Amino acid sequence: MIGVVSYLVFFATVAAILAIAVLGLNLHWGNTGLFNGGVAAFFGAGAYGTLLLGGTPQDGHLGGFGLAYPAALLGGMAAAAVMAWLVGVLTLRLRHDYLAIATFGVAVAFETLMRNAEWLAGGAKGVRGFERPLRDALGDGFLYNLLFLVAVLVVLVAVYLFLERLIGSPFGRLLRAIREDETAARSLGKTPAQVRLTAFVTGAVIMGLAGGLYGTFYAFVSPQDILPTLTFQIWAMLIVGGAGNNRGAILGAFLIWGAWTASGWALSRFAPVEAQLYTGSVQFVLIGLVIVGMLLWRPEGLLPERLVVSQSGSSSRTQEGV
Amino acid sequence: MIQNLLDGVLTGSFLSLGAIGLTLVMHILRFANFSHAELLSIGAYAALVFDRLFEALLPVFAAAFAPLTLTGALVLALLVSMVATGASAVLIDILVFRRIRENGRELSMVFASFGMALVVRNLIGLVFGLHSQLYSPDIAFATVLSFDPLILVKPDQLFVFVAALAIMAVLHLVLTRTTFGFALRAVAENPALAQANGVNLRAMITAVWLIAGALAAAAGVFYGLSHQITPVMGRDLVLPIFAATIVGGIGSVNGALLGGFIVGIATNLSLVILPAGYTPAVPFLMILAVLLVRPNGLFGEARE
Predict the structure, then answer these.
(1) Is residue A102 situated within a structural domain?
(2) CATH of B2-293, one of 1.10.3470, 1.10.10, 3.40.50, 1.20.120
(3) Is the pLDDT of residue B150 over 80?
(4) Total CB pairs under 8 A between chain A and B
(5) What is the ipTM, given to two decimal places?
(6) How far apart are CA A157 and CA B154, in angstroms?
(7) With B56 labelled, which of A104, A120, B31, B230 sits at a CA distance of 20 to 30 A?
(8) A198–chain B nearest CA distance, Å
């Protein structure tokens, strides 16, 4: 029984961490219409940043600054912000395909760098030597994991409330205005490139926060944690849950992570031994079909975006299409 | 150094073919098609199937044209594969992209193309196995051009280079000298105006997919001739091909041609200063450099 409960705690922790990243992507794609093909890179920047800044000194690579945990986590988020700013400043003025390609490229480059640069972050072996915060007081057992889950859920709720406030604010209205009709927004004196950059960096910082928590949870990160697979999973979560709807994003995260884990378990248990090599391929076909199928048959997701009428009396806006 | 340059030109041959098709699709349909590199895989595997088929049916064609490892069967298979891959591209458009386009959700097409890339790549892996394959088991002996410095060229590499240039020359003539070419460019410039002048938009889109698929098939076979065929070749080629379109300027066929060679040469030259493990990141650095210096590429024009 305790086995089942501790597994559920483990599952919920990972799903909640991924849900935070999906919320970040929702700010990009759902609210601002920015395509991010490199979620894994911003997530990874947070994870690597946190572990390098907060870890104990390691032989052979940078890091081990032993910063206090909150400082390390903020550092990881800052790393994600710097990377997002760099990509965003170069691409957000151009047509939208450039952002898609550049973000995809930054993920490839980041993974390549982390896999090869042993002096930087241990290369393929990854980063170890991270003491999880409050481990001395709580130990390594079930209690720690339970409290960690609670902490992650608190962060998830905080991010959710922050984003709800943000998209309900004039800034959020501006994001939607630019997404729907950039020319109209510009004619009102707004600067779309600037606003997009702000939204892009903010979303990336949220992904970095998720990555930092992920790194903290495992006290380890390696290039295997930042594969393009992660990006695809997080997209599927947002598209299934409903782009533009933060509750949908969280629902999608739990659903898809559940489906991914369950299909992995079922394939490893029921597929014949000689087919085990191909279980990964089957899972990828499934996730690709989920993405394409949702776009074809239910593009608004399970929980569609709720269009807010921001000024009462303007009834024409309620019929706004996408 | 000179060896890297030569290898770069070879890499450039198939990157250019891939990039030309991609840039046409991006120009006309206005989305970054992340499944384009999977067309190279489809082409390479289709040619593999037809190659084996023709060798079995027509043993006359099984002999290699010495000193190439290329056989008559593979040449036939390449032609069939170009048609088949073009048809697959059209089919994918009908099944997925067209429906999303006509629902007015153009931005979602990037997501859909990623989803299709995952599906195609992994289905190929499931059908053909995850191991790498070769068209010919014969070892292609390299010709030594010079001993100091050591420079090697395989006859197959020369063939790939010449064949790629020939295909590009034919395409150039079609695009610049025929009514069809004018219509295609008109659609890219202004779809509404082109339609008002009697250009059938749907037929043009189908034509673009056919061309893009055929070029991708040739690129995939040439990649297979000089490297090996694996289900994940699309994953490894997608970024270099995108980099080639950006270097050349999205929408420019000549730009994509030149961009392919520039990216191919730069990637191979990077081996002089960087360990081989870093090679996958080089196209991204080139994208960054182009965006910093000349955001619309060599021949591209600004467009919203």
Answers:
(1) yes
(2) 1.10.3470
(3) no
(4) 142
(5) 0.89
(6) 61
(7) B230
(8) 19
